[in-house]
Design a protein that fits this description.
The complex is a heterodimer of chains A (257) and B (511). Chain A is α/β, with parallel strands linked by helices and 257 residues long. Helix content of chain A is 40%, strand content 24%. Chain B is built from 21 helices and 10 strands. In chain B, the strands form 3 sheets. In chain B, strands 7-6-8-5-9 form a 5-stranded mixed β-sheet. In chain B, strand 6, helix 16 and strand 7 form a beta-alpha-beta unit. The two termini of chain B are 30 Å apart. The chains are: A alpha/beta (257), B alpha/beta (511).
Chain lengths: 257, 511
């Protein structure tokens, strides 16, 4: 089910009087890579989790591939959506291979199909096939997140949701894994929604950046268009952070800008 | 020692059956509760506090409390459905031990389930598991090592506490300990402790193997431990397969030497006639009569004064024959219990002193004793001070002892010999009165009722010709001298006989 569009209409969420989402509406066409950015508490993770019903909105509706996701049991929806998050959450009592095979097994795939898919996925996330029999505890942080991505993609979802997926990784691993995920996104024709607080990462990976503040969308567009058009000083500050950082880096390292 | 080994298969089988059932049942109850407690903070506190409260009840008391409760339920079920059930033995023991096993499993399982990494829970939701799949595929496997630690604790507690099921009429390794304590057979006591401890260690090690396997995700260890447990339980239960056929007759006994001997005497006569007999020993005084009235046991020996005061609630003393005669009609009418008659001797409560002490103080009667009582120390058995007989005799003479101490009968005689106490509530058929040269004080006011040893048969068996034929020759046939000799042969310090051997000797004097 490659290429699935997402329609978010007037989604609201409140916690004890605190507004996490104040009526967010977004239309994400199939195949787009969207980065949700904003400060802590801006509602970006809450918005992401409403997409696979880890959080239930108080109001509003979400349609994925034209279907209202509020219908049917949540686990059926989640099996069609890949989900990657910062803590990875690999099952420590299962091997790497068993972790990747979790959702296909829940869907009742045949063992042959699961085995073939596990091999493919390990290759896809650039891990050796022999790693399938290892325990998650034996892996490095970067390898673990690669397994996390493989697990999310195992059941051939059309949508990949990522919540700060590279936040806990060292810069080199982060860069390599980001590049690989972007390649996967393009190759598999996924619709990808990624939460990040790192504007550089958003600019490097996403087709479209959605900036949230206090549970509302304050800017939305392609990276270069946003930098060109946005006037809100707070958002500008955020958008220009990567460039400022790059300039400062260049100065300090003595290279020409 | 060889006698102890001969009893081991049956004692061990019941002990294993009882503790294993309690553990399985305890786990089956506490695991769902732990899941509920880990999900709901509102449930967690009352559940854990409730289980903790049960744990503070002494295990013997918990066992004792289930007997009247079950008796009540059984009577209720008898009136409602026409079918009662046994309130004695396995059921109360199983229920009490199950409750005991709940706390450690509930506590550790709740901790274990709550200790599962929230990221892993979120991942389980994220990959599309249903709540049920999340519990069985993620939360329980991850909490398993912690849960197994609780199961181990519960197993050790249950196996230890199961020895206490003997007084409510359930055969267990506790039979060695209780019988050994009464007859001062320390080899028996040690044997019972060692057997129970060995069983606990074996169960703990096998469960430990499973725990280590669960912690290291090593399936072979879990399977090896589980298989070891299953095989061990199966082998231990083998004796019950042949033993488990319903016994023809159940002979009851209270918890002292004379009762063991008389139960063996009765059992020997029944077995001599080819009947199958099971024994329920170490019953408390009130438990024994209620068990007979409810048909849980078929026959046992009680004492007229005990029945007179404790069952009929009488305080008057119309004389030996009148008491037995009235008991015969009243117990028949009340509970259908048949009083077959007196064995021929009395085992009365008798205040006894060391001869030298009594002579030095010039005490020969209870009236003398009452006068000097503020300077004297009374030693009694555990029941005596709370029994109506004591209240009656106290009211008649007005005792005010300087100190009153309760002992197991065996230790009561020791305390008298060593001078820890000055006077004891002895039993008139006790061989130690003569052997230790004790003086029995006279009862000029006749405040202590007579205590003829009478044979009681449950209403269910009152018309059983084979039983009555076996018991009939015993009526009026046992002299107090013969009984004292038999009691002393079990109670003495050296060259002691087992109750069964003493019963054999006693039987020879009857022929």
């Amino acid at each position: 089910m490659a290429g699935t569009d997402i329609e978010i209409a007037g989604v609201e969420k409140r916690y004890d009087g605190h507004v996490a989402l104040a009526g967010v509406s977004l239309s994400i066409p199939a195949g787009q890579f969207v980065a949700l950015v904003g400060a802590s508490g801006s509602g970006k993770t809450t918005l992401l989790k409403t997409l696979n019903r880890l959080i239930t909105p108080d109001a509003g509706a979400i349609r994925i591939g034209g279907e209202d996701i509020a219908e049917g049991p949540p686990h059926r929806l989640r099996r069609r959506i890949g989900y990657v998050f910062q803590e990875v959450g690999l099952f420590p009592h299962l091997t790497v291979g068993e972790n990747i095979a979790v959702t296909p097994r829940l869907l009742g795939w045949t063992p042959e199909r699961i085995a073939a898919r596990t091999d493919d996925l390990l290759a896809l996330v650039a891990l050796p096939a022999a790693m399938a029999s290892r325990a998650p505890a034996e892996l490095s942080g970067g390898q673990r997140q690669r397994v996390g991505v493989a697990r999310a993609l195992a059941a051939e979802p059309g949508i990949l949701l990522m919540d700060e997926p590279f936040g806990a990784l060292d810069p080199l691993t982060r860069d390599a894994l980001g590049t690989d995920v972007l390649a996967l996104h393009e190759r598999l024709g996924l619709t990808t929604v990624m939460v990040t607080h790192d504007m550089a990462e958003a600019v490097l990976l996403a087709d479209r950046i959605v900036v949230l503040r206090d549970g509302a969308v304050v800017a939305d567009g392609a990276p270069e268009a946003l930098v060109r058009d946005v006037i809100d000083p707070g958002v500008r500050d955020l958008l220009e952070a990567p460039r400022r950082q790059a300039l400062r880096l260049a100065e300090r390292l003595g290279g020409g800008a | 020692m060889s006698e102890a080994f001969a009893l081991l298969p049956v004692y061990l089988a019941w002990h294993v059956l009882l503790s294993a059932s309690a553990l399985v049942l305890g786990a089956a109850i506490s695991l769902p509760l732990a899941v509920a407690a880990s999900r709901s903070p509102r449930l967690r506190w009352p559940l854990l506090a409730g289980a903790g409260l049960i744990q503070t009840i002494p295990s013997l008391a918990l066992l004792a409390l289930f007997f009247p409760l079950l008796l009540l339920l059984s009577q209720l079920s008898q009136t409602v459905t026409g079918h009662g059930f046994s309130a004695l033995g396995f059921l109360p023991s199983l229920l009490a031990l199950t409750l005991y096993a709940v706390l450690p499993i509930l506590r550790t399982a709740t901790t274990g389930l709550m200790g599962v990494d929230p990221a892993v829970r979120e991942a389980a939701d994220g990959v599309g598991m249903t709540p049920h799949q999340k519990l069985w595929r993620v939360e329980l496997p991850l909490a398993l090592p912690v849960i197994m630690a609780g199961v181990r604790t519960a197993a050790v507690w249950t196996i230890g506490a199961a020895t206490l099921s003997t007084p409510v009429g359930q055969t267990s390794l506790g039979n060695y300990i209780f019988a050994g304590l009464q007859t001062e057979n320390w080899i028996f006591v040690l044997f019972g402790c060692a057997a129970s401890a060995t069983l606990a260690i074996c169960a703990d090690q096998l469960l430990g193997l499973m725990e280590a396997g669960a912690a290291r995700r090593d399936r072979r260890r879990v399977i090896a431990g589980g298989a070891g447990l299953l095989i061990g339980v199966a082998i231990a239960l083998l004796p019950l397969v042949s033993f488990g056929k319903p016994a023809g007759y159940t002979v009851g006994a209270k918890n002292f030497s004379e009762q063991y001997i008389l139960a063996e005497l009765i059992a020997g006569r029944l077995e001599g006639g080819g009947a199958r007999v099971s024994r329920k020993e170490d019953l408390g005084s009130a438990v024994a009569y209620r068990a007979l009235a409810a048909g849980e046991i078929d026959v046992y020996v009680d004492y007229s004064g005990t029945l007179w005061t404790n069952v009929l609630g009488r305080t008057d003393n119309p004389g030996r024959e009148a008491v037995v005669a009235e008991l015969t009609t009243r117990l028949k009418a009340r509970d259908g219990v048949a009083v077959l008659g007196s064995l021929g001797f009395e085992n009365a409560y008798a205040f006894a002193m060391r001869r030298d002490r009594a002579e030095a103080l010039g005490v020969t009667s209870l009236a003398d004793l009452a006068r000097l009582s503020p300077r004297l120390k009374l030693g009694s058995d555990i029941e005596f001070l709370s029994r109506p007989e004591w209240k009656g005799v106290d009211a008649a003479y007005g005792f005010s002892f300087g100190r009153e101490t309760s002992y197991q009968p065996t230790f009561m005689y020791r305390a008298l010999a060593s001078g820890d106490v000055d006077v004891i509530s002895a039993f008139s058929s006790d061989g130690r009165i003569a052997a230790n040269d004790l003086v029995v004080l006279t009862d000029p006011k006749g405040a202590l009722p007579p205590y003829d040893a009478v044979v009681l048969v449950s209403g269910r068996r009152a018309g059983d010709a084979r039983l009555l034929a076996a018991l009939e020759p015993l009526i009026g046939a046992v002299s107090v001298e013969a009984m004292r000799t038999a009691n002393y042969s079990v109670d003495r310090d050296s060259g002691k006989l087992s109750p069964a051997a003493a019963a054999g000797e006693l039987a020879k004097t009857l022929e």
